[in-house]
Design goal:
Elements (H helix, E strand, L loop, with lengths): L1 H9 L10 E2 L4 E6 L2 E6 L6 E6 L3 E5 L2 E4 L2 E9 L12 H23 L5 E7 L5 E8 L5 E2 L3 E5 L4 E5 L6 E13 L3 E10 L4 H9 L5 E3 L6 H9 L5 E3 L5 E4 L5 E2 L7 E5 L9 E8 L6 H9 L5 E8 L3 E8 L4 E9 L3 E10 L3 H12 L2 E3 L1
Antiparallel strand pairs: 1-7, 2-3, 3-4, 4-15, 5-6, 6-7, 7-14, 8-9, 9-13, 10-13, 11-12, 13-14, 16-17, 17-25, 18-19, 19-20, 20-24, 21-22, 22-23, 23-24
Length: 368
Amino acid sequence: MEKFFIYLFLFLIASELNAQQPITSKHYSIKHDSCYLFIDNAKDCWYTIDFKTDTLFQVEGNMFFCEGKIMQVNAILFGNGRAEGVMGSLKAEKDALYGHKKWELDYQQETLGKHLKSGEELFYDNNGKPFLLWWYKSPKNVKIPEREIEIQGTVSKTKISDTTAVELQITYQLFLEFVINGNTSVSICIPVQENERIDIEKQKLKSIPSKLKVYGAPIDLTILEQRTMNAGKFFLQDSLNLIKIEVPDWLNILRVPIDNCFVGTFPEKNNIYNAVLIGWNYKSDTLDFQKFIRYYQNKTERENNKILSNDSHIFREFYTTDNSYFYRQNAYINGDNIYCYVNFTATKSTYDFNIERFDELINKIETK
């Protein structure tokens, strides 16, 4: 269990990629209320974006119909000479954003055979993650032809028309760039038509970071759908209902191939994803609380041990591993019929960023 957990936390790309490589994405969407949750669960992607729209569906490949127009979503692996990519470096992350913009703009100019006038704006979300909004002015001969998109429904067919018997001039192409998982560049592109205001279309893309969640590993789609369709608080429980965990909005639940545990990730910092594992054992005559604690303590060589709390209900400890690269906490909870083990793994640079969230999660675990 411990070995698997560390693997989820790191998820580094082993080889250095010298060229950009498109990722074959695995797209899903979940309709809820007046929104669609857009999901990419392909390797090295693992993110969601909640779009406020009445319609979102895949037209073909990486082209989607969203908010009344075609939206293109690309995910591309890149290399910057470091196996971990931009992890842990804000400067490297920003360099990757500008690098992909240059690559895309050069490609568009070569394809169209024209110099394109472009602009850009770098901004940050509430956690300090950088995003690059950029655009170029389209050549005057680029138009959107009148066409219809047919949606097959269970009761009737709906036809959505881009325009009514006219062709609309595309005035700009807008791009939103961001980096996830250290080596993956995501680019979202929408056109600006002549009957639209570019400042309003820019704001649509600038609203995406507040609705973006990056998981850092494969998403548990079953739990994600349950959470999305549940309007109130969401809880995770074991098969015997002896553990009940209220899941905070910020906690991302991952798919795991083993029983009797949940694994989740915290909000990222500099493309590093702190992780938590919640596991349990049912009480028996051969397993007391101290044996349960020692079992997990003996699984990992550790440094800088420090006891944080110790009573009959909960034992918490801090320690480091791998020459103090990983900063960790274990919490052991003594329920009436079950023992619960909670492991938080971070790095030195991200421990303080998420430790209050870990404390919040501990307080949301109930045992019977």
